[in-house]
Amino acid sequence: MERVVITEGPEDTMRLGEELARELRAGDVVALVGELGSGKTTLAKGIAQGLFVREPVISPSFLLARTYRGQMPLHHLDAYRVNSPQELVEVGLTELLPPEEGVTVVEWADRVEELIPPGNLWIRLEHLDGDRRKLTLRR
Fold first, then answer.
1. Which of 45, 52, 54, 107 has the CB geometry, 3.0–4.6 Å to 70, for a possible disulfide?
2. What local confidence, expressed as pLDDT, does residue 62 receive?
3. What is the DSSP string of 47-90?
């Protein structure tokens, strides 16, 4: 199943994330793919809002992962600085793919594609013009 959504700016992208959060269940993985600045972290923030996370969500680029508490735990992984999927294995982050509890959002998921369980949600974010983005969602 594939769905395409055009967002007009960051607020729309966050709103989409909130809507997606309502459909997520414990153990789900959301794999985000797109260029720098395409809205991956913005979408992750929207998912966090939809899961009632109260603290600010920031990109975990330098830490690889952050966990936030909300309606259920939100694990936020960033594979931007990962050179191989083996690095996530070595630091024990594969236990979040899928998580025992909560939801995992993975930015730059294409860098660790073989670690993403089948059947999970993949979202490709693309720049259009200005703040507009094209998001392609598929399971």
1. 52
2. 73
3. HHHHTT--SPP---TTTSEEEE-SSS-EEEEE-TT-SSHHHHHH
